[in-house]
Queue: 3 jobs
Job 1
Amino acid sequence: MHAYRTHTCAQLTKENVGQTVRLSGWVHRVRDHGGILFIDLRDTYGVTQVLCDPDSPAFADVEKVRSEWCIRIDGEVKARSADLVNPKLPTGEIEVFVRDIEVLGASKELPLMVFGDQEYPEETRLKYRYLDLRRDAMQTSMKLRTDVVRSMRQRMWDKGFREFQTPIITASSPEGARDFLVPSRLHPGKFYALPQAPQQFKQLIMVSGYDKYFQIAPCFRDEDPRADRSPTDFYQLDLEMSFVTQQDVFDTIAPVLAGVFSEFGGGKKVDNPAEWPQISYRDAALWYGTDKPDLRNPIKMQTVSEHFAGSGFAIFAKLLEQDGTEIRAIPAPTGGSRKFCDRMNAFAQKEGLPGMGYIFWRTADNGEMEAAGPLAKNIGPERTEAIRQQLGLGNGDAAFFLGGKPSSFEKVAGKARTVIGDELGLTEKDRFAFAWIVDFPIYQKDEETGGYEFEHNPFSMPQGGMDALLGDPLAVRGFQYDLACNGYELVSGAIRNHKPEIMFKAFEIAGYGEDEVRRRFGGMVNAFQYGAPPHGGCAAGIDRIVMLLADTANIREVIMFPMNQRAEDLMMNAPSEPTNEQLRELRLRVLPPEA
């Protein structure tokens, strides 16, 4: 007999009745029914009920075990009586009578229970992550993650891609976040960096002639934490292709992701990837208040400035006299009650705005539809009717209004749209809704210096090539794209700028001379001088994808060993202080923290 088990805790059925078997696992829970001890024995595959009574030679030892002890038992498989069958378990028709037991690993008193659905502080869960990971929900999430990665790999191989690994220790490269630096012992005073992404290497793979690359790539960024972002490291499905257009990249990655979401999405609807809309960055900001819209929510915001210009509502009328200002409306179908409108106005105040104007339409005493609310009284029936017609609203509906420079209210407008959709039951919950966001601006104006700086990826090929860079920088759009799903950015990518002369010009506009570009990105710039092919690609965030599939809003629920929100590993006590010997070897000195 095997040293630890003849079967897993999910394998035994009525076919095994009468057999002597050996099982190993953890004590999920212990129950004492009138002197007969029942143990739910658990391993990663499932649960088997084992029992012991005073007639067993192992009874005295079984009495000693407690929750989460790791044990090995030998026993005889018996059929449960019909009224005791547990249909929820694959092993629910049998139980194992214990003849022998060995304690493989005893457990101290538990800081958190594995059995049950008790809630524990996140700090406790992360400090004792190895216990937290034994819980059923976490076992399910981690298995989901591995299955998703396996599926992604297979789908990429099926599309003719090959997986190549890129360096982890490399040079510092600006990717939009802070680098994690690694001091060099062999080169005192110099530092490596952990890669924020394999960006430059995957482009060099294209220059090397490999045509289709992918990798399940670890990425390292010293970022402030958010619920949907790890503060230190994350994994992405990274891919790059040569001789492709933007649409080619879409046509490659979209079926992969649609397949993954269909396979693991629990039956939720996944739209045909050929029908995923392509929305310009500008329109996404206007319609949804964000570049990662949730299209399950049908609400689309509109500009209604013309209806308030010169109107009796002085706040908006005066606001529109200033350059760069506008008024936007958020339609709210079925939201036409003063109670709901007041609640949304309070929401805006909590978000730091003075409030949010509104109009709602109701049935008047004469039986006809009328517009109600302070705004309606100020601007009059003709303007309110024009607004209603533009927004396509009717009796029982409402509209909310925000004004100013879009940058000052777009974020709140986007949040308000989400709240309205959720509270009014407009958002389709049983669906994964995807949208490509395209035509990102490459530059933005620095209000302090009057110069231009990169607003988005500086390595994207500008639409129109060199000719585009000779005009207004604020009009330049890049072949850059994101894929949004249910309010999250899942994919980011671009067609790359592979021509040195266009790259130098693009950086010159942002204030970087050719010498600095060569110093910072010398490896890539040099490579582009030796027959670089046009190429592009993208990266899909695996952690965030699994988070959506697991139906959780906290990314730490789908990462096996995550940091806390202060970027600390409470289990391994990281970051930790280096020893004096380590510092001397690296020729480093640690300054005390600033007061």
Note: Residues 56 and 99 are 6 Å apart (CA to CA).
Job 2
Amino acid sequence: MFPTYDVIVVGAGHAGCEAAAAAANMGCRVMLATMNMQTIAQMSCNPAMGGIAKGQIVREIDAMGGYSGIVTDETMIQFRMLNRSKGPAMWSPRAQSDRNLFARKWRNLLEEHPLIDFWQEMVTGLIVHDDRVSGVRTGLGLEIPSETVVLTNGTFLNGLIHIGEKQFGGGRAGERAARGITEQLMELGFEHGRMKTGTPPRLDGRTIDMEQLEVQPGDDPAAKFSFTDTTPLEDQIPCHVAYTNPKVHDLLKEGFDRSPMFNGRIRGLGPRYCPSIEDKIDRFADRDRHQLFVEPEGRDTCEIYLNGFSSSLPEEVQYEALKSVPGFENVKMFRPGYAIEYDYFPPTQLSSSLETKVVKGLFFAGQINGTTGYEEAACQGLMAGINAARRVKDEESIVLLRSEAYIGVLIDDLINKGTDEPYRMFTSRAEFRILLRQDNADIRLTQLAADIGMQHMDERVVRVRQKQEDIKEIFRILERQSLVPEELNPLLQHLGSTEVKQSLKAHKVLLRPNLHLRELRSISESLNQQLSAFDTETVEEAEIQLKYEGYIRKEQEMVDKMTRLEEVRLSDQLDYHQFGALSAEAREKLTSIRPSTIGQASRISGVSPSDISILLVHLGR
């Protein structure tokens, strides 16, 4: 009934969609298996993409030939660049999406690909022979053969939903949990654990008095995620901000004795940086209010996602507390918030390609690895799909370094440090974040994607090369253009900067802090005219490179030093117990994780600098 596929992807969330698309764009024949074709790429939680560090990941996915950025651009209803008040390394794009349109656009892209087939049924197990995967088994007892398998099961593995004292099996509201895979993986020798996440109630926007709330508009003009020619966003929809108060907190506390979080029914750890409303009230008892973000679910619906009010309290407690939020006096709920527990597998059981160490040809991506967030899942799916395809072709895996991408930071953190709580990406996790800006993701990664054989990258490579040439030309313009004191000093005086007595070249003036290129363009018609030939994004990137040249150079020197450690290989057969000078913890961790390089070993928790020195001595370095 079925041919032998190159890659089978189990699960059609953000990780699964990117994995299927990537493997197909690498020329592989792909089967995407999902329990429900109507929920492909569904935004299970908030209707948004990007955010702090997450926006950088979406741009990196796009630069690597993935689809998350394109889909977001074509379906977003609002765009904001976060952290504009900080340095450009911190700038992070974020978009509100039309939930239904987002899923529909993703499904259309996948269905248009001639190398992707679909199968709607629960996958209940793997076919494994001699420690190598050779297909999947479904609930109907069908066996679908494949060279490789990518598991992207999200929160569905033995998922358990909690609302107050009620609990029932499910992968998300209205959908059943997946059974069988966890049990088989345990039999094969995998370790597993439980994690928890949650979601807020969905509300009827017609019953909220938006006049009482703060308006949160999008950027004007709106930027975008994809480096391709996606449609510019117009007619943005505003979000709003509401606030809780002591009365709301008191009403919520009345239900704490029935909260599964506090009475021990939930054993899995939840995301530290996205706590439930009851957790916030408990942990931050000194605060008399918390922000709530009122986010529309789309253009053609009145449904509202209440970001910041994630809860697993009884539905009547949630409802009564909501009515005490100013503007929500007459609010109606579409469905209550809930918590969900699910199985995950500690990612230290993976190699840097996201292939499991126990079963060859089997890859994990997304929440099965202990991460949280659409963006974190999507980038893992992209890399798992690429590496599954390369495994089929008997080619070396593609591993992004920490100095090359946030994607590299995320995967490196997971496989070396593991996680016992849902992992979320932040800019602070990246030691080379000045190099890993959102504006230069295309320059960092597009050529690599083309080199490894991702389809449809030729035009993107041409675009990147043109951008690099344009940046060089902008540098030349700034080095040639003189600014005389008469036009420059009024601006400097306004900014509180030292005035000049003679003409200066524009690139020298631009090195002053708190002075930006847009201000120089406003006082020099000649400069403005010359730069008008370039698009806004290219001009902005040229300015960043110029102003932060010294910092960028120093960070690159650090990268070069680290790269030397990454080039020192470690045998996967090395017996670490032979080194008596290594700490006991280092021997245990190195034996378990089996790092492939000295650089990777140095980032394992419990491996000290002295342990690294011992290994270098052994290697004659």
Note: The chain is about 35% helix and 20% strand.
Job 3
Amino acid sequence: MHRYRSHTCGDLRKTDALQPTRLSGWCHRIRDHGGVLFIDLRDHYGITQCVVDPDSGAFALAEKLRSEWVVRIDGLVRQRPAGTENTEMPTGLVEVYVTEIEVLGAAAELPLPVFGDQNYPEDMRLRYRFLDLRREKLHNNIMLRGRVIDSLRARMKGQGFFEFQTPILTASSPEGARDFLVPSRLHPGKFYALPQAPQQFKQLLMTAGFDRYFQIAPCFRDEDLRADRSLEFYQLDIEMSFVTQEDIFATVEPVLRGVFEEFGEGFAVTPQFPRIPYAETMLKYGTDKPDLRNPLVIVDVTEEFSREDVSFNAFKNVIKQGGVVRAIPATGAGAQPRSFFDKLNDWARGEGAAGLGYVIFEGEADALVGKGPIAKFLPAGVQQAIAAKAGLKSGDAVFFACDKPDRAAKLAGAARLRIGSELKLSKTGVFELCWIVDFPMYEWNEDEKRIDFSHNPFSMPNYDADAFIALDGADKDAILGINAFQYDVVCNGFELSSGAIRNHRPDIMRKAFALAGYDETVLEEKFGGMYRAFHYGAPPHGGIAPGVDRIVMLLAGEENLREIVAFPMNQRGEDLLLGAPSDVTAKQLRELSIKLNMPEK
């Protein structure tokens, strides 16, 4: 028999009865039933109940065992007595009558128990992550992550993609988030950077003629952490040559849909992802990451509040200064108590707004009457026009956000989510995916009074090439009206990925940067490798990079990435288990020609 086990703790079945067995694992739970000890022995594969009675030669040692001791157990498999079976466990029809026990690893008193689902402070869970990972839910999440990655990899290879590996030590990029810098010992005063994404490398692979690239790529960004963003993460990095935006969609949709169907435990998955233009999603949902499970749709009612017979000057004065009014419907909210409306107003003030005006509609369908604090300022015809535009009926309410367009959209979008949650309007048991398309290429930088890139400077403009190159750099309105071949894929309010058809033409790239106030030297100095490569015959190409961590987080039903990553950091970017970031010795700093200039405390 093997030194440690003949079976795992998930193997034994009724057909193994009366057979000798050897198991090794952790003492998950120990129970004393009238002098008979029951040990639930756990390993990676499952749990087996082991029984030690006073007649067993192992009983004296069994009495000394404690939770999470690692033991080897020898014994005889037998069927459980009638009425004691556990049909919820794969091994629940049998137990092991113990004849011998060997302690392989004793455990000190546990700082947090493995058995059960008690909540513990995050810092304790991360400091003792090796114990936390033994808990069933987290253990299953990590295994789910591995299966999802296997599925993604198989689906990509099934479409003719080849897996590449790109460098981890690379050059610092001036775009995007802050880089993590790595000092060079061989080149004093110079630094490598960890890749924010393999963006330039995968585009260079297309220029080199490899056609279909993918990688489960590690990425590093020195950003502030939040529940769905960490310092290091993995993405399904994809790039394709000789493709249009439609080709990207046709390739990626079945991969994402297939993974959500495979691991979604019966949740419905969007059969065909709708394409929502950026301007439309900002109006209807107040965000470019819409949660389509929520049925509420924001509408613009600036025109209605601008009418001469409307006397609500608080909004009219904002409109005169370039503001807008967004209406957020609240289906069935008319039945809510006054406290519901007061709490929403208080919440809006906490978000920095003046509040949320509202109207509650009553009466017949063709003669709705509005009630509420601002209803008296709105003539009947205006009330009915608002109700018709927002699709409201008797018993519904509508809230209003009034501000400059960006701030009004942000407040209305947040209010939409809050109202949908409070009224329990959102669908459950679904994964609602969509594409956000037609992102603006440029935006107006109000602080610096200049045109700047809106998102990715290397996206191909969705504009006739000759007309783009001929654009007058002083024509602000024309420039701000240009969209890019740029797209996001969103699921249940989480951005899974951004992507684009790339700007592979040096002449268009020079013009794109010139319109944002950059000359060719910026391209040569900051992006020289890729820019030079495009002068030697670059194919049209495009790609995308869905975030593996967020996909797994959604599939696991978690709200924090730390629940699906084996060894995450805390909210301050600290690894409490191994102690990173840590101090280094003066010798190490001298070898790197680095002298610290610490901030004053």
Note: The two ends are 63 Å apart (CA to CA).
